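Record minuted for completeness.

…
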Amino acid sequence: MQMNTPPRSTIRLTRRGRFALIATGAVVAGTAVAVPLLSLAKHGDTRPTSLVVPEGWRAAQIYAAVDKALARPAGTTKKSLALAHLKLPNDAEGNPEGYLFPATYPLGPKASPQSLLSSMVDTANRRFNGAPVAAGAQRNAMNVYQAVTIASIVQAEAATKADMGKVARVVFNRLERGMPLQMDSTINYALNRSTLHTTAKDTRTQSPYNSYQRMGLPPTPIDNPGEQAMRAAISPTPGDWLYFVTVKPGDTRFTADYQQHLRNVAEFNAEQKKSASPSPK
C-alpha cells in the first residue's frame, strides 16, 4: 500500500551532527575539510608511515588527505583519478565515492595517489563483492552499488552503530511506500557541508542529491561507508519506522507515527535552543 507523505516543508527526518574520535584526533564526519590521520615513523622521523581513512569521509576529504600525506599540491589526487584505472562498478561511471574503503593504508616509499586510490577501491571490492553482500543485496531487490549507496546514507545519518540497522529500515520502508527519503545528509552532500540545520530553502536546492525533491536513492553514495553500515544496508532491523530524529546524544527516536515524530522534532528544537542559549552568569 502506498502511503502519502506529509508536506515536505514540514518534515525533518534527521537533524544532528556526528563526531568520531579516531586514532589521533577528533574528525567531523561529512565536512568539506579533511584532517588526515597519520602514523609517524620512530626516532623523530616526520615522514608518515600510514594513513587512516575514517568511516564516513567523503571522496573530497580523502583526496585532500592523500595530498597532505604525500606532500603533493592540493588537487593532485583528484586529478590522478583518470590515471589510476580504478576497478569500479559500471554504475559508478568513474566516480569512486563509496568505494574508497575506510581503513589504514601504508605509505611506503613508492606510494602515490594512484596506488593509494587503487588500494582503497580494491579493498572495497573485496569487502563488497563477496557472497554475503551480493546475496544480501539480491535479497533486498537491489544491486551491490545500490546497497553501498544506502550504506553511505546509514553511515551519515546513524548517531550510533547500534542505530544503523534501524536507519537502514527507515530507508527501505520509505522507498517501498513511494515516499521521498528526505534525508538531510544528502542535502549536506549536495551543498558540500555538514550541519544539523536544514532550512526550507535548503530543501529546494536543485540537485540530484536533494532527496526532499527527488524520489529514490541519490545517484551515487554520499560518503565511504564502513562494514557495519554495509551490514545494516543488507540486513536492516525489522520495524515499521518511517521517521527518526536524534533529540540529544544517546536519544534517537524512531517512529511510524508522523504526529509523534513532530513531537520528537519539537523536543529536538527545544534542546538545540537550550544548548545555544548563553549560560547564566
